[in-house]
Inverse folding.
């Protein structure tokens, strides 16, 4: 993290940082797109382009499949294809291993030591999250984990982040979401939460603060964000760093 002079938060109300996983805690984009391509080829479906995958990233598998295939394909088929893709993805991760992205472990340690509660709010199945958190060694950092099985609606609906805040016993206005996908940033703003965008597309996400990597994030970012106005719905200004 980038060193700065730190601001002081005077409120004693609990505060939390809620993290997305894929693309935020770990770099999993290649494993995801290869899994989509392999399963589509095996099932006889036309290959998907990288641009299509980029639009899908951060959203629930069944949601993007319904959008892709339309109403002609039955729910049972969508679920079967989606489950096959996620199983292939887990096999790919097990084969290559899982490492946290640069800056992740340092930030998790720093935030915990500073009294922040830490949670996961992800569109992924719990089987994926368990594998990622166990293999990466990050599991013990988090006080609550919310997966796609815990909610009825996926991002950009705010349910996943509101559920995480509830489990962390933190008011949404005292929660900050770290995300790498536009759907997640929109979901966070709809939940009344402040946002940090990270990753190669950080400057296109509409987050309140955006950085290419967590290493670039100033040390006072989370304290400072809590003093800024909560975005209304999915509208916010974006400050790019790094």
């Amino acid at each position: 993290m980038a060193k700065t002079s730190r601001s002081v938060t005077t409120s004693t109300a609990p505060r939390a940082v809620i993290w997305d996983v894929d693309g935020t805690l770990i770099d999993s984009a290649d494993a995801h797109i290869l899994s989509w391509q392999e399963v589509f080829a095996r099932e006889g479906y036309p290959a998907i382009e990288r641009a299509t995958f980029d639009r899908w990233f951060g959203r629930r598998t069944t949601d993007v499949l319904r959008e892709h295939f339309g109403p002609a394909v039955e729910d049972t088929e969508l679920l079967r294809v989606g489950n096959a893709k996620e199983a292939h993805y887990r096999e790919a991760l097990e084969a290559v291993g899982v490492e946290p992205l640069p800056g992740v472990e340092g930030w998790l340690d720093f935030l915990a030591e500073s009294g922040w509660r830490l949670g996961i709010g992800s569109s992924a199945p719990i089987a994926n999250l368990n594998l990622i958190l166990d293999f990466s060694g990050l599991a013990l950092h988090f006080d609550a984990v919310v997966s796609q099985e815990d909610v009825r609606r996926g991002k950009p609906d705010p349910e996943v982040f509101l559920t995480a805040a509830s489990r962390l016993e933190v008011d949404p206005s005292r929660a900050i979401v770290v995300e790498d996908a536009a759907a997640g940033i929109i979901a966070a703003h709809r939940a009344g939460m402040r946002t940090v965008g990270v990753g190669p597309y950080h400057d296109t996400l509409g987050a309140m603060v955006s950085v290419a990597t967590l290493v670039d994030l100033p040390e006072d970012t989370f304290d400072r964000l809590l003093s800024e106005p909560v975005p209304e719905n999915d509208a916010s200004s974006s400050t790019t760093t790094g």
In short: Residues 152 and 229 are 29 Å apart (CA to CA). Confidence is low (pLDDT under 50) at residues 4-9, 234-242. The domain at 29-96 is CATH 1.10.150 (DNA polymerase; domain 1).
